[in-house]
Specification:
Layout lengths: L7 E3 L1 H7 L7 E4 L5 E4 L4 E4 L3 E4 L12 E6 L6 E4 L4 E3 L29 E2 L2 E2 L1 E3 L4 E3 H9 L20 H15 L3 E3 L16 E3 L15 E5 L2 E5 L6 E4 L4 E5 L4 E5 L4 E4 L11 E4 L7 E3 L4 E3 L5 E4 L2 E4 L6 E4 L5 E4 L8
Parallel strand pairs: 1-2, 5-6, 13-17, 20-21
Antiparallel strand pairs: 2-3, 3-4, 6-7, 7-8, 9-10, 11-12, 14-15, 15-16, 17-18, 18-19, 22-23, 24-25, 26-27
């Protein structure tokens, strides 16, 4: 006949009444399905965690017991018996937490967001501790064209903003406009004009006044209501409107390099030259040379012959010798005092 070995058993309440099991003695609670082993002083539960519905969970009374809810209310929760109450071990949603979000730290700092400041999961207000603005208020502020102007590279008004690239392009274009072949209105005007037009340019002379003071030889350009000044670089060339002549910068001065043709006129000596428009040339009026308004002529005589070849001197070949071998010089050959 088969033998049956049974350990001490009874309800959980009966075990509590019984007290401590002997050292090594086991006891089985028939109502809670718990297994305990004693040491003569206390009883310790052994084996797997208790499980079942939450309604079937025994009253908390033994520290260390675990109970897992397998059906019904709070399915999936694990509880711990602290001797007086069952404490939930695992949290499955935010509402399971006790306290406030302030109790949860990130290791250094933490903060909370008011529920009223969250819309559809997104924070709808920003605060610096003193000023609080909604996202809508911030957007209105950012979109305000008076406070925050939109980049408009095609704009030309004073209120339009240009991108950095557009500004660089305009600067390069402005530089090219005053480089070779640019036009200036005048290079002798010492006082800035009272009513300049946008784009007007001038070469500033010595002695300039007003906003041109101490800007000698620079190019002044009037744009957006103000004068902008450029230091010339060697090789810059400018057409001067009032003179209809071209000047170039040689590193120290603006010099004439083109324009109206120069005229040679008869006079009493070589006057001017260089950049002058009129050159007066004297060729020794009188003494056989005649200077008229548009012609110069020589009077033949006294050994001078004027013909189609030019003006020739008559050489006798005896007393005056033409020496072609020595720089085409005239030399004296024979000096004869003659007879009484």
């Amino acid at each position: 006949m088969a033998q049956t070995i049974q350990i001490k058993r009874g309800t959980r309440a009966q075990l509590l009444t019984y007290g401590a099991l002997k050292a090594g003695e086991m006891g089985f609670c028939t109502d809670t399905k718990e297994v305990y082993i004693g040491d003569g002083t206390t009883n310790s539960m052994v084996g797997r965690a208790l499980s079942g519905s939450e309604a079937s969970r025994p009253v908390a009374a033994s520290v260390g017991r675990l109970y897992y809810v397998t059906t019904g209310t709070n399915l999936g929760y694990l509880y711990f018996d602290d001797g007086t109450a069952w404490k939930r071990v695992n949290a499955q949603k935010l509402t399971d937490l006790t306290g406030s979000v302030d109790d949860i730290a990130d290791g250094t700092t933490y903060a909370k967001v008011l529920k009223t400041n969250v819309t559809n999961g997104h924070i709808n207000k920003v605060s610096d501790g003193t000023n609080t603005k909604t996202a809508a208020e911030i957007k209105i502020h950012i979109d305000d064209a008076v406070k925050h102007r939109v980049i408009n590279d095609a704009g030309a008004a004073n209120t339009d903003l240009w991108s950095a690239q557009k500004i660089r392009n305009e600067i390069e274009l402005a530089k090219r406009n005053i480089e070779p072949q640019a036009s200036v209105k005048d290079l002798n005007l010492v006082a800035p004009p009272a009513s300049p037009v946008a784009g007007d340019r001038y070469i500033i002379p010595v002695g300039a006044t007003g906003t041109w003071l101490n800007k000698t030889n620079q190019i002044a350009e009037f744009q957006a209501g103000v004068w902008t000044f450029y230091n010339p670089v060697v090789g810059w060339t400018a057409y001067v409107d009032d003179e209809q002549k071209i000047y170039s910068w040689n590193g120290s001065a603006w010099v004439r390099t083109g324009g109206a043709l120069q005229t040679v006129a008869a006079g009493n000596g070589l006057t001017g030259g260089g950049q002058a428009d009129v050159i007066s040339l004297a060729v020794g009026a009188g003494n056989g040379i005649t200077v008229a308004a548009t012609s110069v002529s020589a009077k033949a005589g006294k050994g001078i012959v004027v013909n189609g070849t030019g003006i020739e001197a008559n050489i006798d070949g005896s007393s005056i010798v033409y020496d072609a071998a020595n720089g085409n010089r005239l030399t004296i050959s024979v000096v004869d005092g003659g007879t009484f």
